[in-house]
Amino acid sequence: MPVLTFANTKGGAGKTTAALVLASELSARGIRVTMLDADPSGWLTRWYQKQAVTPFLTVQPVCDETIEETTVKAKKAGGYVLIDLPSSGETVLARAVALADRVLVPVQGCAMDAQGGAEVLDLLNELDTRCNVKIAHSVVLTRVNAAVTTRALHAAKDFLSARGIETMTTPITERAAYRDVFDKGGLIHDLDPLEVSNLSRALDNASRFADEVLDLVPQRALLRRPSAAVPLRPAA
Predict the structure, then answer these.
(1) SUPFAM superfamilies under this entry (predicted)?
(2) Using CA atoms, how far apart are residues 22 and 20, in angstroms rounded to an integer?
(3) Domains in the chain with CATH codes
């Protein structure tokens, strides 16, 4: 079953939010989702423990030593496996990238975030050139103001375009629902529209984002690429 890894070496890029938005929408559609929380901060694990979510969604904390075995077991359960990575930790980053059928690189609409995402993209290029391991990947713009196109967002798009990097059409927009769900627990779909502003717009954004991901990575048996040792850069 498909494995999607959310990766950016810069903190605050929106990795966890993007993963949760996708997981919430897929599980609301009755698609099984296993989320692997590799971030020591454990935001997904904390969110999941607040209240029962849905029988279609589970969250499991993982680390460098357990991520590969846990991913293999999660794939056997079916559906989608979503891996949320920390902004640091090169070993777990390399392993999660190598396990992925597609890497999604969340980038907040600014050049600094784009540069953090570029470090992940450099690792993907290294896998390709040194190991002949090609892993599909896309940038997803996050925390985008739906009403205003900022100069910083233009700069991020220009930076990515200059490198020939594929950017998803649907961004993750800045919505109150995406913040509130971490406090309240449950799915975005469970939030009260009387308590959360513009909930319908958040749900529409989540739906369009999930549709694009499903088009990129359909839920079907995937031909696995040849396994290869993942090059790990020496620690700085």
Answers:
(1) P-loop containing nucleoside triphosphate hydrolases
(2) 5
(3) 3-214 (3.40.50.300)
